[in-house]
Amino acid sequence: MHVVPLPALADNYIWLLHDDHGQAIVVDPGESAPVDAAMRARGLKLCAILLTHHHNDHIGGAGELAETHGVPVYAPDDARIAVATHRVHDGDTVTLQHPAARFRVMAVPGHTLSHIVYAGESVLLCGDTLFSLGCGRLFEGTPAQMLSSLQRLASLPGDTLVCCGHEYTAANGRFALTVEPDNVELKRRLDDVAKLRAAQQPSVPATLASELACNPFLRVDSDSVIRWCGEHGAQNDPVARFAALRAAKDDFRA
Fold first, then answer.
1. Residues 53 and 114: beta-carbon distance below 8 Å
2. Catalytic hit among 18, 28, 57, 69
3. Distances (CA, A) of 127 to 78, 118, 119, 136, 207
4. CB atoms within 10 A of CB 233
5. pTM listed for this prediction
6. Is 90 tagged catalytic?
7. Does residue 86 have an active-site annotation?
8. pLDDT tens digit string along 78-113?
9. 69 belongs to the catalytic site
10. Per-residue pLDDT tens for 132-167?
11. Is the omega angle on the peptide bond into residue 205 within 30 degrees of 0, that is, cis?
């Protein structure tokens, strides 16, 4: 399976997955034009659309693509996603014949209450729950819900490719460095990101193992993050530590 991030809108990524036989899936198409252009350029046939949550920058192009290509649309059970043809829930498996692929559906409330991710084929299609070096804002869920969701994702194999919905890595990394200024792996990751972005290349996907080593929102139990949280009045409780990190990131400007 080939995994291709398609830039869209201001800083979104639509994820295109395709096999060697020209069969493709798209994930979170916030607009249709980048998908159609990529399909034409690669000689691909669209076979399915997967959606993670209801925000328009992730579903805005799904209706047009579904109508044009006559494909099913898998989405969480949320009335705000009217284009869905198949509603999926936590623990479900999405099995596709073309391209041959299987994804486990995981409920990850936090960014929104009905947010889901798709895990399989060595990728994690995580929308706006987990970002490289960061995580999504809490628009509907609680810190406890988001931390629990992130901990579920952290249990996946380390070689899983994290395919997130936005190009936020450099900005997330600048915040992460304020939390863990001595994290050697984080510094190395940011060097790589700087080179990729200077070459106008996406900074994602990254491996989950890299995120576990560098992303403070997955490291609330690490000594350095606990120390930072203690300096911000939230040392003893993991949920309080996560909430302190998220609040600080919300206010961060750099």
1. yes
2. 57
3. 15, 9, 12, 9, 15
4. 8
5. 0.97
6. no
7. no
8. 999 999 999 999 999 999 999 999 999 999 999 999
9. no
10. 999 999 999 999 999 999 999 999 999 999 999 999
11. yes
Strands 93-96 and 101-107: antiparallel
| Amino acid code (one letter) for 13 | Y
Instruction: Report the pLDDT value the prediction gives residue 161, as an integer from 0 to 100.
Output: 98
Determine whether 58 is an active site residue: yes
Q: What percent of the chain has pLDDT over 90?
A: 97
Q: Which tens digit of pLDDT belongs to each residue from 211-236?
A: 999 999 999 999 999 999 999 888 78
Taking alpha carbons only, the member of 89, 240, 213, 75 closest to residue 154 is: 213
Q: Which of 18, 54, 55, 115 is catalytic?
A: 55
**Residue with tokens 């398609």, as numbered in its chain:** 6
Q: Does the annotation count 89 as an active-site position?
A: no
- Residue 125: both structure tokens together: 């299609």
Domains, the chain, in order of start with CATH, read 1-129+136-166 (3.60.15.10), 169-254 (no CATH)
Please report which helix (H) or strand (E) contains residue 238, including its range. helix 238-251
Nearest to 160 by CA among 105, 104, 112, 120: 120
Residue 166 annotated in active site: yes
**Chain-wide mean pLDDT for the chain?**
97
Please give the DSSP secondary-structure letter assigned to residue 217.
Answer: G
Looking at residue 43, what is its pLDDT?
Answer: 98
Q: Which amino acid is at 217?
A: F
Catalytic residue among 128, 182, 192, 237: 128
